[in-house]
Automatic annotation (TrEMBL):
GO terms for molecular function: ATP binding; pantothenate kinase activity. The gene is coaA. Its EC number is 2.7.1.33. It catalyses: (R)-pantothenate + ATP = (R)-4'-phosphopantothenate + ADP + H(+). Belongs to the prokaryotic pantothenate kinase family. This is Pantothenate kinase. It comes from Lacticaseibacillus sharpeae JCM 1186 = DSM 20505. The keyword Hydrolase does not apply. Coiled coil: none annotated.
Amino acid sequence: MQTQEQYREYGRAEWGKLRGMEAKSVSAAELEALRSRADRVSLDDVREIYLPLTELIRVRLRSFLNKLANDSTFLRTNTEHTPFIIGISGSVAVGKSTTARLLQKLLSRQMPGMSVQMLTTDGFLLPNAELERRGLTDRKGFPESYDMHALTKFLVDVKMNRTALAPEYSHASYDVVPGAFTEVKQPDILIVEGINVLQTGKDSPIYYSDLYDLTLYVDAAAKDIEGWFMERFNQFLDLAVDDPDDFYYPYAHGDRDEALAMASDLWRTVNLANLNEYILPTRDRASVILHKTSNHSIDKVLLRRF
């Protein structure tokens, strides 16, 4: 658990005063398009939480670029283009994707001359067939179900300004998409979101957090996240009704109570266990913690001092 010495806590009103007066925002329609299923975010949230957050990111980015320039001056070398990488972590269903998409939109709008890309670490999960071969089907989402070596190589390639390929993942098929990749080609800013952003691979000398220049942790009470997870599962079932290829199609046409009982068990045995054992312990590595209440509203922001 973070100490008062490690973080300075800002209430919503106090944090909201830190936004830039000229910061460009998003419209209500744009915000709705950015929102994940079962998540909620308002224009007030954008104004009071996310605009000050983008201001902080811009401050850290300027410091990052100044350091590169100063180092090059000292070493008498040309300044090399180096991407600024933002990592976003937190539990399944806590709203990481909404945060990532919203930050990408705001940063792109506020810094139109810069390339801002985002992706999820879901693509670095082992394919379902490989999980089954290794006897890890019931451990999907836990650290051992990811190709951590591939994720490390990807992040190092990005940092070294090489073109990097990230595997794509489909929630509809509940699997990695064969042969599908997102190309990351020398962006100015890369936003990476995933439950394992702040973790370290087994036998790896590298903490993935070492490869990020700013890290966020989206925090909430486990009971609240469980409710959001179940709400999202219900929505997945509704969306799968007319798509026989959707992973959730059989559940959508079966007994809904049985499907919900299965989802509840999945939350307890997999997602909650993963949160308590592997995700929550990484929270104190984050540069910024965004704390959500039961209605998805962010009531406080914790900024790391050291």
